[in-house]
Design a protein that fits this description.
Elements lengths: L1 H67 L8 H27 L5 H12 L3 H7 L4
């Protein structure tokens, strides 16, 4: 009987040890999960802030261009010239698109072309904000 009681006590001690280790492992896992969740949240918040900064910088650049496109400061001269040149190229390409549209007389082509171009082009309001000079 002594062996049985001794075995029973050892089994009970082992189960308690396993329970203690499991509880400790759970606490550690819970803390790590909290840390990982916090890190993910902070990274997401940083990403949102960076996106806001990029958007605001773009708005500042757009406002600067509109205000100073004809006489930019030396540091911005090349940037403003690049924008002006791109806007001119866009205008040329749009006129060419309009000519192609006006000259197309094959039945159904004009409608299909018009739908395709409309799908590919941004909304006029968004475009006007993004490229105010056409």
């Amino acid at each position: 009987m002594a062996n049985y009681e001794e075995f029973k006590k050892k089994a009970k001690d082992a189960i308690e040890t396993i329970a203690d280790v499991s509880a400790e492992a759970y606490k550690i896992a819970e803390e790590k999960a909290k840390v990982l969740a916090r890190r993910a949240k902070l990274n997401a918040e940083i990403t949102r802030e960076k996106a806001l900064i990029r958007r605001v910088k773009g708005e500042i650049g757009g406002k600067y261009y509109e205000l100073h496109k004809d006489d930019p400061e030396e540091a911005f001269r090349d940037n403003c010239e690049n924008i002006t040149d791109s806007l001119a190229r866009i205008g040329v390409k749009r006129r060419e698109l309009e000519e192609l549209k006006a000259n197309s007389k094959s039945g159904g082509f004009e409608e299909a072309y018009s739908e395709t171009v409309q799908d590919a082009e941004p909304e006029p309001e968004a475009e006007a904000q993004e490229y105010s000079e056409d």
